[in-house]
Amino acid sequence: MKRIVTILCIVMTAAVSWAGQNISVPLKKFPGKKCYTYRVTLKDKKGCGFSIDKPKQFLSQKAIDRRRKQNLPLDSTDLPVNRNNVRAILASTEEITLLGTSKWNNTVVVNLTDTTAVEKIRKMEFVSDCKRVWTSPDSITPNVKRKKIKGGFSSWDSLKNVAYGSAFIQIHLMNGEKLHERGFRGKGMTIAVLDGGFANVDRLSAFKNVKVTGARDFVFPRSTDIYNETDHGTKVLSTMAMNAPTVYIGTAPDASYWLLRCEDQQTEQPVEEDYWAMAAEFADSVGVDIISSSLGYNEYDNHYGDHHYHEMDGKTTLISRTASMLAEKGIILVNSAGNYGMGPWKKITFPADAENIITVGALTATLQNAPFSGIGPTQDGRIKPDVMAIGSPATLISARGTVIEDMGTSFSTPIVCGLIACLWQARPEKNAKQIMDIVRQSANNYCHPDNIYGYGVPDFEKALRQ
Known about the structure:
The protein is α/β, with parallel strands linked by helices. The protein folds into 2 domains: 15-27 and 144-465, Rossmann fold; 36-136, Alpha-Beta Plaits (2-Layer Sandwich), CATH 3.30.70. It contains 11 helices and 19 strands. The chain has helices spanning 61-69, 83-90, 117-122, 168-172, 176-181, 232-241, 271-285, 318-325, 409-426, 432-442, 460-465; strands at residues 15-18, 21-24, 28-29, 36-42, 96-102, 107-112, 127-135, 139-140, 190-195, 211-217, 243-244, 248-249, 256-261, 290-293, 332-336, 358-364, 387-392, 394-397, 403-406. It has a 7-stranded parallel β-sheet, with helices on both faces. Strand 14 (290-293), helix 8 and strand 15 form a beta-alpha-beta unit. The chain starts with 14 loop residues before the first strand and ends with a helix.
């Protein structure tokens, strides 16, 4: 079962939801030989060939400016992984492919078919650990051919005299329109959306005015077209980026967006934490200000690599350790709490336990905690979730280009994320941690927070005055 945190019906037969239709799809054999992915952890970065005194060699000017503005020093985690070590690992066997590296974790992720090379890699003097994080499945669900999309909104999609259209309630609950009325709609802010795919974003007229800076895929095997993958990222993006007066206006319609695919729809294995880390580091390197992530993990296929409650301290798992570093790089992470409140797990998922992030839970239309919304606290006693927003259901734009409703902390998260971008636009003198503190302090449960409702619903008009 996938951990993209939206409420889904799981069936044993392969079924794909596309353009509002459920289509049964026969499975196909995984292409190529049986293969395995390993996370190789290096001991240090000696001889990496880079220096923190010359950051332009590995960071964009926008990323450097973001650090300087917030008085954040560079450190060894910013330095790239030693390329000589990477070359040595790749020379261990002919049938090996580099999938990526994580400089913050000093890891190298490789895929290989010759497992006899693993012991050779483990014995290399610069390697401290070598762990299997993915095994190719026997069969997968093939991509579905794109279906006909809607050319534009229908007359019944419009709510006359309601500027925000169907998005009004979920924005008004947090006084988000007060930011927009003052001209703060996210202009100059860059948001990275970490997700599993962005179906039809490139074709829908509804998204034609969205400022997409770029897109990148971190999943192996690489998708031939991230706009022909899941529509989950499409829905997430719509809550922030849409600008269709009287139909739907998102929370940050003037922001710019990077669309980063790091969720594998075919399997659920620990390597997805590596993909997430690579995407987060890429977002940092290109100068992103905020990350919206509606992803969460705790249980994997065949229970290999499952996480446990005692790990929920923001630093034990690779994904949460990476997430906890973002504020130190000047980036705000807004992450979903997860949808396991009604199941045996109950709690938030990883990386929602990370330090110095905003974890978002979901509310019902009557402003009650949605029963599926993951709860806290973290293992070390921190309040989670941080804040709450409408998510049961939230109003969205589908991959077909229609106004729909869907449920999950996946959607309450970007609604909050977009407004944080607008707030930061209004308060550019504040750093990432200060903006997050202001958001928490503005919430209606700040004086007596708990681990179900968190600090409550943020009030962005109040936050603007703080």
